[in-house]
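Hey forum,

I'm writing up a methods section and want to include a predicted complex as supplementary material. The small molecule is zinc ion. I've pasted the protein sequence and the SMILES. Can someone with a working setup run it? I'll credit the forum in the acknowledgements.
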Amino acid sequence: MSGALLCINCGTPLRRTFVNLGSTPISNFNVRPEDISKPDPTYPLHVRICESCLLVQAEGVVDRSAHFGEDYQYFSSFAASWVEHARRYAEDMIARFGLSEDSMVVEVASNDGYLLQHFVARGVPVLGVEPTKSTANAAIAKGIPTEMVFFGRATAERLTREGYAADLMASNNVLAHVPDINDFVAGFATLLKPEGVWTVEFPHILNLIEENQFDTIYHEHYSYLSLLVVERILTKHGLRVFNVEELRTHGGSLRVFSCHRDAHQSEAPGLARVRAKEADFGLDSLGAYEGFDAKVQAAKKALLAFLNSAKAEGKTVAAYGAAAKGNTLLNYCGVGTDLVAYVVDRNDKKQGRYLPGSRLPILAPEKIAETKPDYVLILPWNLRREIEAQMGEVRQWGGKFVVAIPKLEVF
Ligand SMILES: [Zn+2]
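Reply by user p_vandermeer:
Happy to help. Structure tokens for the complex are below, copy them as they are.
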């Protein structure tokens, strides 16, 4: 462990481990058949906590272009439920803050325009900021003005010089992905009008700890956030939080509303509620974060014990859902085709490829009915009910479902 590693927020040397998941390949690149003989490059997935500011963070070991390069395949509009989430957000914000044709909405990490399209439909002017070429071009093709750049202080200053000023700024699931969180937040403080509002959504670390969601830890994430730490960072940039909503997305997220320190927004009850919840859990001291690593190791032992005993009994196991989450779990636990035969996924772009690290072949869901495994390990535990319902046929041959998180369960 390097003693020179410094907190990305406050610069304090990082001495404490939150969880160490070892060295694993990048989660969201599936291996093509022609690359099957090449080893997957692996990178440490070691998450630490700053004992000074309590920011939970991972070292940025991967070049950002590796995540957001030409091959980046995640188009937000492919997920119908996420587009609906965005539509409701747009309707809600237009009503709440009285947005009109005289307003300006800026979204950072605007992807393919899945969110801004709903403001455009209501005649509210927008600007997207999106560094990934493929998704930014998809947005532009839909008529959504998009700047193809990384966001931060410099970009915000340039946009301000060009006459942009935002009434509403949105940023969903990007705050945890930025290596320089202070530069990023400074950008919002720069581009926001004096009475403008910034909403930021991120997975809540309280749920990560409480529900043992260690499989949501990826190389793409630089930080794992609490309201407490976000408030501290925003304060440094002259911003203040005035409302917080708890969302069910990504295993439990927060939507934090902030404005300039002197803006007229009054504090809503959601702010006090989430502050109290975090205080009750003890997120303001190191104790709440200690012991997570041991809890994660226990989940690994339980999964391996189950898979090994299934194998010893001659039972077969297949997995469902070729998503990033599953890769963190399988690779941390060292599961390969010796223990799980294959994984199925409905996305036909993934079929025919292999999971990174574990090298499970990705097949069509029909394969399950064909091979009738004794157990189906559901990797996206957040969708366990839907998958159980979809794959009801598994019961017909006496098969069972399994989840590993929050704890091993066979049902
Ligand atoms: Zn710190």
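Some notes you might quote in the supplement: Residues 7, 9-10, 12, 50, 52-53, 55 surround zinc ion (CB under 6 Å). Residues 65-72 have pLDDT under 50 and may be disordered.
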